[in-house]
Amino acid sequence: MASLQAETTFPRTGLAGAALPGAGLGSRTAEGLTTAAAKARIPRLRLLSKDLLVILAAIDLMLVSGSAFLGAIGYQFALAGQLRDIEIYIAVSLGLAAATVVAMVFDGGYSVEQQGDEGKLTRKAFFSFNSAFSVLVCLLFLTHVTDFYSRGSLFTQYAAGCGGLLLGRAAAARLIEAAVRTGYLEAQRIGLIGTAQAIAAFRIKQPDRMAVRFTAFELPDWAVCPSGVADEDELRGIVVDRIAALRGAAVEEVVILLPEQARDLIHHIVRGCTHLPVGLNLLLDQELYDPQTIEVRRFGWNSAVKLCRPPLSALDQVAKRMFDIVTALAGLVTLAPLMILVAVAIKMDTKGPVFFRQKRHGYNQRPFRITKFRTMNTLDDGPVIRQATVNDSRITKVGAILRRTNLDELPQLFDVLRGDMSLVGPRPHALAHDWEYESKIPAYARRHNIKPGLTGWAQIHGLRGETDTDDKMRARVEHDLYYIDHWSLLLDVRIILTTVFSSRAYRNAR
């Protein structure tokens, strides 16, 4: 019962499906592939992760040292017509290569998961080589080798060594991608244990180019819901069966794809996997947790998993606040004449106040009153608020112009100075809309982890105006969360400039 009956490789992705008997599960193979075809796609070459690391490191060592040495002596021969101090050039080239390889190891440049991603590997190789070269130059200076070491030789060593490394890494990435795609290489085997639906969702999110083979070990749906288990011994038998199959498949890592409510089943699997020489991973719900910030923290003798981090550090908050104050003040001084003209136009167009103030949620869902130029003949601020639509009769003549040009947002510069808002951030919505969408979109409340903005990442991508469907709001939330997770001052500057000069920021204005 514990044996692994069949394994198939999925085209392009290198994903594998495992057929496991018992527990009401039939034999499962990849769609469109026969058993014979599946056997034909089993890798001809099986490398462990450590084997691939050693091979790639050795190749880089030879490429950097060889190209750097040839560059240096080539320069000397072209300049003087003879070769001198060969042993020094050999030592320097080997030292540069060794330092580069060490830097690549610490930067994860040889990890199996990243092989095949040519762009990322090229960047890692470039920064690792430059770090190693900087250390080399410092050592040459401190040991006075530079007194007789030609600067021209140093430059040619840099150019030749860096060029050789980058070309080698690009070639290696393409070779690994081709070998994995055609079934000639398998560097790491990872076991996926969960329901068929969870495994299928995991596969969809995998990149096309990975030197990794995923093998599926499915669990019946009833096993995930403890309340539906008729016999505890039957559940244990299912787990024992899957653990035995994992051992037979010789996996190196196991990923548990189960929801948090299946805690008892997760407990059984974790206990069983501790008897295997594998790395054990529990996939968390990425709609709730930021995958880039999950880490293990220690508090004395206690260990905890840090699921998310504050969106901005204390230093980030100070930098963003200073930028807001300086830019908002400059904006108010520059735009004061225009704002006065807008105020006069509003008073001449319709009766009523110049400004419109409405309760919105700010940082940490603290309510504040946002300030805008009035563009409608109503001042709604209650539990039910109707969004502006195309040809909305409530919009005044001047208001229509202000909305199309974003000029109605200018008074929010005062909200920025008061500290209720930031220049850039998720746009605040009316409280009634917040309450509605918090119940529909799980990650919606994360928008309030930073101050709301006068403009934002969603707005410069045309995601503004009426949100008459849940998908429109979901797209806006996704862009807001991207901004929170990737914030920088340069990103703020980019968003502000795009808001002012790009037509996309004025799209869908109502």
Automatic annotation (TrEMBL):
The chain crosses the membrane at residues 52-74, 86-106, 126-145, 325-346. It is a multi-pass membrane protein. InterPro entries: Bact_transf (IPR003362), EPS_sugar_tfrase (IPR017475). Coiled coil: none annotated. It comes from the Bacteria. It is found in: Membrane. Keywords: Exopolysaccharide synthesis, Membrane, Transferase, Transmembrane, Transmembrane helix. It comes from Methylobacterium tardum. GO terms for biological process: colanic acid biosynthetic process; polysaccharide biosynthetic process. One of its GO terms (molecular function) is undecaprenyl-phosphate glucose phosphotransferase activity. Belongs to the bacterial sugar transferase family. PANTHER family: COLANIC BIOSYNTHESIS UDP-GLUCOSE LIPID CARRIER TRANSFERASE, UDP-GLUCOSE:UNDECAPRENYL-PHOSPHATE GLUCOSE-1-PHOSPHATE TRANSFERASE. The lineage of its organism: Bacteria, Pseudomonadati, Pseudomonadota, Alphaproteobacteria, Hyphomicrobiales. NCBIfam families: EPS_sugtrans (TIGR03025). Pfam families: Bac_transf (PF02397), CoA_binding_3 (PF13727). Residues 320-501 form the Bacterial sugar transferase domain. GO terms for cellular component: membrane. This is Bacterial sugar transferase domain-containing protein.
